[in-house]
TrEMBL record:
Family per similarity comment: Belongs to the peptidase S1C family.
Gene Ontology molecular function: any one: serine-type endopeptidase activity
TM helices/strands, residue ranges: 21-45
Region (Disordered): 1-20, 209-233
Keyword annotations of the record: Hydrolase, Membrane, Protease, Transmembrane, Transmembrane helix
One GO biological process term: proteolysis
Stated name of the protein: Serine protease
Entries under InterPro entries matching the protein: Chloro_Bact_Ser_Proteases, PDZ, PDZ_sf, Peptidase_S1_PA, Peptidase_S1_PA_chymotrypsin, Peptidase_S1C
Length: 377
């Protein structure tokens, strides 16, 4: 098994830049060289005219002791966020018969529960050995608790742990586009790596292959903070150091995930509210459930919206009067332009929540509002 990389989406083939020859570019380069020579000569003359050697001044500067009074990190700076969050971030290595997988995680309890991605620890469910490295450099064995392929959320437990630093959960529902965020993890094996950026977009339905014909679907937070293979499972935090997302998927310029392309400013994180809910289910029951409408939707249908292909008898959708052929175009205030968008938006709701759907019926372009109470846990 190759070194674990996060799922990739959106393959884009870049075009090679055309080679230029001669012309103005060469003339500008020659002119620049000429100016450097002239400048160098002028500086040499001025130095000699000033009275010769400056070795005394140089030696005095080199003999100075380094300053020992660094200024404290400014409030709300990336430096301060890093100092706050890094102790609660771990590197994860999973060694199994198929090879080695690497990723990151966040400590969510002082006795050693770690939140990470399913795709980082999937082999651990089959008996692969798990090792977790803390920010202080110490390594510890960890046991697989549970994970969910559909949401790409997983949980480990560091063995024999106590009094560990814990990350704080933030409210991902309060995120805004343009808000500053910080990503922390172990890209390409470089532990405790900190990158910063902004929330580029919210509510991105992102489906990623998990192997074996399975896939996960997230209602992703898009960010331009650099995320690379190995960042998977690590935290995306706000400028108060609160976990607002779990880094999970990156887009690639490569034609395949094995192409080795790194960050192109298109990374996606699972919202913290969702990850927290799933993690609690995994710890308490060993499995994850999601709020449901009780419909099957057609992924292949090109119609803009989510086309209802089936309605489960007695389901919330059935009770609300949805029919096969209906097209859902909005859930509450959120536009729905695809089947994945409806699934992701529904999963992001609370169990038992009542949502308002905008629906068009077959043969009738006039939309109607339908209130649906989602399934309970």
């Amino acid at each position: 098994m190759p070194e674990q990389q996060p799922p990739f989406v959106t393959q884009v083939q870049s075009q090679p830049e055309k080679k230029r020859t001669g012309g103005v570019g060469a003339a500008v380069a020659l002119a620049l060289v000429g100016s450097l020579v002239v400048g160098g000569g002028a500086g040499y003359f001025a130095g000699n005219a000033a009275g010769g050697s400056n070795h005394g001044y140089v030696n005095e500067a080199l003999d100075q002791k380094p300053a020992s009074d660094p200024a404290p990190a400014p409030e709300g700076s990336v430096e301060q966020v890093a100092a706050t969050v890094l102790p609660a971030v771990v590197s994860i290595a999973v060694n199994g018969a198929q090879g080695r997988a690497e990723g990151s995680g966040s400590i969510i309890s002082s006795d050693g529960y770690v939140l990470t991605n399913h795709h980082v620890i999937a082999e651990a469910e089959k008996g692969a050995r798990v090792e977790v490295t803390l920010n202080d450099g110490s390594s510890h064995p960890a046991s697989f608790v549970a994970s969910d392929v559909n949401t790409d959320v997983g949980v480990l437990k560091i063995e024999g742990a106590s009094n560990l630093p814990v990350i704080r959960f933030g409210d991902s529902n309060e995120l805004h586009v343009g808000q500053e965020v910080v990503a922390i993890g172990s890209p390409l094996g470089f532990s405790a790596t900190v990158t910063s950026g902004i929330v580029s977009a919210l509510n991105r339905p992102v489906r990623a292959s998990q192997g074996g014909g399975e896939s996960s679907l997230m209602d992703g937070i898009q960010t331009d903070a650099a995320i690379n293979p190995g960042n998977s499972g690590g935290p995306l935090v706000d400028m108060n150091g609160n976990l607002v997302g779990m880094n999970s998927v990156i887009a690639s310029m490569s034609a395949s995930p094995q192409g080795g392309a790194g960050s192109i400013g298109l990374g996606f994180a699972i919202p913290s509210n969702f990850a927290q809910r799933v993690a609690k289910q995994l710890i308490d029951t060993g499995e994850a459930k999601q709020p449901m409408l009780g419909v099957q939707v057609s992924i292949a249908d090109p119609t803009r919206g989510a086309v209802v292909a089936g309605v489960e008898p007695g389901s919330p959708a059935d009770k609300a009067g949805l029919k096969v052929g209906d097209v859902v175009t909005r859930l509450n205030e959120r536009p729905i332009d695809s089947a994945d968008a409806l699934i992701a938006a529904t999963r992001s709701q609370d169990f038992g929540a009542t949502v308002k759907l905008e629906v068009r019926s077959r043969g009738n372009d006039q939309p109607r509002a339908v209130d649906v109470t989602l399934s309970s846990e």
